[in-house]
Task: structure prediction
Amino acid sequence: MREAISSSRPALRLRELPRNVWAVTITSFLTDVSSEMLINLIPLFLANVLGVGMEIVGLIEGVAETTASLLKVFSGWLSDRLRQRKWLAVLGYALSTVAKPFLFFANHWGWVLAVRFTDRVGKGVRTSPRDALVADSVDPAHRGLAFGLHRAGDTAGAVVGLLIALGVVWSTQATGRTLTRPTFQTVVLFSVIPAALAVLVLALAAHDVPVKREASPPSLTLRGFDRHFKLFLLTVVLFTLGNSSDAFLILRGQERGLSVLGVLGMLITFNGVYTMVSGPAGALSDRLGRRRLIVGGWLVYGLIYLGFALARTGWQVWALFTLYGIYYGMVEGTARALVADLVRPAQRGTAYGVYNAAVGLTAFPASFIAGLLWRYIGPAAPFTFGALMALLAVGLLMLWLPGKQDIPNSFQG
Result:
């Protein structure tokens, strides 16, 4: 795989990006306003209000992500088969929106699991068609910029959502060390409005791009995909095995002394860094190559996770979590752009389905292992394990995905 996709086309300015990119970005912004004010309080709700153990937190996160991930394969394939991305994405966003209000009534961890599962089913339905819609809508030479902008918009929404959550916590329980049920219920009510607006924006502003029909029945096999895509997928799986749910990072902050407001402040600074890095990193991957950005991001991840293992105070966890945004900004959009680089245009929906499913399916053992390591070895153990897996993935990516090999021309349409 070559390190950069060369192009004689001039640099694209943000305002010149296609309408679909902006529609998807605004939709993701509004969705994250809704989701992030909730999802980051759920582990605190489980631990502080419902009193569940770390293994249950890991089980809920793992089961929800893994089960929903199976749909990412099917929805991606279906978008290829139907040659329509938009309405599958709209359906997925709508399903997540309907699920959120039920958290208001949760009085047992089973309720939380059911809502998280339904929400992740919605994510499973929408993610692959949405990513394929972005890839279909933009020139390959500007694909990194488009995905970087999307991730930046997504994360900017997280900042806004967390600021709203912080305001609710400040007004209802001040500087309390643990989360209360009334505070969580208030946040649930606030989350519904931006979620509904997100569905409307995508339904009214986006449009499908014609896609050549080329799809086989949905399958978890990788037959028909390029060898480099398969090797990249395997490397991502190994990395993800050590990348447990960020719920454990939130609980690590509380365990090291942060209040609920402190946890929210930590998340806001993290998402601020993520937002600032995503766009420039995506554009940089168009020029320097996807692999370099991913390797750099995974190295940053490994060092930061080692820091989480060694952290002794809440402010140290906060500082590390802020820097954690650099990893996300460098890797999340770049990896999605690389998927589009490595497959034919008519395979993109299915490829994103396989990619997202592989990550999601690995999330179950990753989160469950982290919960067990936390309980039976100690809070530092999940982060040491994550750092080691990141270093292994870096070595394999450098070995398996050489920088000098060209991507076939047929993949760049």
